[in-house]
Amino acid sequence: MIVADRKPIEEIIEQVKGLRSVLVLGCNECVTVCEAGGKKEVGVLASALRMYFLQQGREVNVGERTLERQCDTEYLEEIRDSIDHYEAVVSLACGVGIQFTAERYPSKAVYPGVNTSFMGATLERGVWAERCQGCGNCILATTGAVCPVARCAKRLFNGPCGGSTDGKCEISKDVACAWQLIVDRLKTLGRMEDYENLCPIKDWSTDRAGGPRKVIREDLRS
Amino acid sequence: MSPKTPSKLEKILRAGHLAVTSECGPPRGSDASHIVHKAELIKQHVDAINITDNQTSVCRMSSLAACIRLKLMGLEPVLQMVVRDRNRIALQSDILGAASFDIHNLLCLSGDHQRFGDCAQGQNVFDLDSMQLLQTARRMRDEGKFLGGDPIQRPPAMFVGAAANPFADPFEIRVPRLAKKVAAGAEFIQTQCIYNLDKFEKWMEILRGRGLHEQVFILAGVTPFKSAGMARYMKTKVPGMDVPDDVIKRMAGTPKDKQAEEGITICVETIQRLKEVKGVAGFHVMAIEWEERVPEIVERAGLHPRPPA
Known about the structure:
The structure holds 2 protein chains of 2 kinds. By secondary structure, chain A is an alpha/beta fold. Chain A has 7 helices and 9 strands; from the N terminus they run βαβααβαβαβββαββα. Chain A is elongated, with a radius of gyration of 22 Å.
């Protein structure tokens, strides 16, 4: 999933303090799972904003809504009738949802309510970790299903570097060395001979480096 | 095998002499007299001088510019290049720039992560990794081609090397990793500082078992301790460093005013022991901000005078 983290309330207030009305818009997908932008967090943020405006002696209409997804137009259409009640939106979706909401409602200011962090998984409640950077050309088949792009601080394709110590990365004792994990996996799978294959120079054109990306499936287009 | 490049370092190694290299860090400013002075201190005692490339991710004068300074003094620089800060366009471009000054040695490195330096908030590049930089440099030299396939007019004539850390983890892939670097095109290796001699000798033994000592020149890395504090710092703070407790004890057990001498003596003893290890082709003496002691180390270790190129 896309993992996001809550923005400091002070930063959100700074964005919306001059408004007369604002819709706090949640998303029922990834940000709900990582407890940053679902219905519960919408309620918490809306209450905090109401409290703030009350303390300021200002009457501000703070609405709450959570859509199934903010990255699909059909769900975003659900607020078409009510959006005009609000001057602006604070979206608690990931960066995709925030932008897509703004694209659907060009006359509305849309502010981010979360910091979109990475594509990752839940390690335990309250702990999420990165697993994929969407480089567009998956090499997990050769690395025992451990990604050096997402998990090596130097994204080395022929690691580990000289900084790997006791299974940890040189940047922090709290970060596992991706290449230690890769070697451990290759050993488990009985494929250590694969370690000596030189990984060729990466074509980064499918990555962010190639510019904004699109996937076009002609077979699915109507 | 006859040398493939005009590199003096390559000539000395191929002639079967134990080579001696050292390294200098460029200044944190634009005054070139700093690097010229350091080189003056050691030039009679080493065959080539590595110039580090923004080591520990702290901004300094560029390695290439400092190498040119050495070249203008008639010395033999080893251009260190990390893949942290430059993409494949800049790396190839700088290789050509170095070649235009007849810089004949290149050391291909990953580079420390930027979080250790003065620009921890910076982006890193890692377009290529160190092995892929080796491949790139060899392709440029041997095939006379850019990565993109176009021909290079006057290809770079560089003796190409890499680093190896026999002490990083996991140990079992340390020799396979060296084999990968050799396969990628490394012709010489400069190792991480060696304090755990038993482990280094074990690494050499495994390496010899695969015949790698006949395919690549191994220069054993040594760094003298200035003090017991430095020894402890290297052990606990420097990633991938293996300083055994008995070495720490020996330094700590020496009176403070004699610790520097003891550090030099340990370094000399290390070289003397490693000279006997089959497959060790030379020494890389990294006296960190202590270049003035390199001549003494080289002399006491019996590596002086240096052979003519």
